[in-house]
Amino acid sequence: MADGIVLKKVELKLGTREFRFDCAVPAGAVTAITGPSGSGKSTFLNLVAGFETPDRGHILIAGEDVTGKHPSERPVSLVFQDNNLFAHLDLATNIGLGINPSLKLSGNDRAAISQALERVDLSGFEKRMPGTLSGGERQRAAFARALVRKKPVLLMDEPFAALDPGLRLSMAGLLIDLHRETGNTVLIVTHDPNEVGRLADHAIFIDRGQILLQAPAEEFLARRDIPALAEFLSG
C-alpha cells in the first residue's frame, strides 16, 4: 500500500520536551495514534496538520513535501474533541466555513452542505445553533464539515472522548461508514484500546516523544513485549 503520510527524520523541541518521529502511514487506511498522556500524540497530529513546524526533517503527504506549507495549504481536514463549532453561527454556516472561509457559497455548495448534514443524520438542521444540540449532534456536525471539504486526509484528535459509551459506538460506526465511502487516509488519536480494535487498520504507539511501535492493528493489540504498550493495552 502506498505511503499516504511520511514523517522523515522529523525532530521538534518544545520547551524542554523533544520529539523524534520517523514513520510512514499507509494511504487509504485508518491509523490509530496511541500512547500515554503527554507522550506526543497531539504533537504528531499537529506536525501533520501544520500547526507545528519541525526543527529538522520533512513531512510528505501523498508524495508532496508539505513541511513548509501553511495548514490551509495542506490536503487535510480536522475533527477535534470539542468539535470546534462557532456558537454564534448556525450549522449551515459552520459547515460552509469548511468549503470557503469567506462564506462565498454557490447553490451547489449549499446543496453539498445539506447533503452532508443528511449523511450524518442531521437533515433539516441547517438553521440550528450549536448550543441547541447534544454533544453527539455537534460532533456529527463536525463530521459534516469534514465531509464537504473533500480532503484526502482526515485528522481526528480524540473526537469521541467526551461522549458517553453509546454515542462513542454510534460515532465510531459513522466514521467507519464514511471511510468506506471516501477511502481517505485517517489518523485518529485515542486513549482507548477498544477503539483501536474497532476502528483501526494500523496503529502507532508513541511514548516520550518517540514511536515505539507501528504495526497492523491485530499485531499491535497482541503485543506485550513493550512495557508501556502492555500497560496501555491492559488499562
Structural class by sheet pairing and helices: alpha/beta
Which band does the percent of strand residues land in?
25-35%
- CATH topology heading of the largest domain: Rossmann fold
Largest sheet: 6 strands, mixed
Radius of gyration (CA) equals 18 Å
| Tally of DSSP helical segments | 8
Q: What is the CATH class of the largest domain?
A: Alpha Beta
Low-confidence stretches: none
CATH architectural label of the largest domain: 3-Layer(aba) Sandwich
Helix-strand sequence = EEEHEEEHHHEHEHEEHH
Helix fraction, binned, reads 25-40%
Q: What is the total number of structural domains?
A: 2
Kindly report the average pLDDT value: 89
Adjacency order of strands in the biggest sheet: 6-7-8-3-9-10
Q: What gross morphology would you assign?
A: globular
Total strand segments:
10
Q: What distance separates the N and C termini?
A: 32 Å
CATH superfamily of the largest domain: P-loop containing nucleotide triphosphate hydrolases
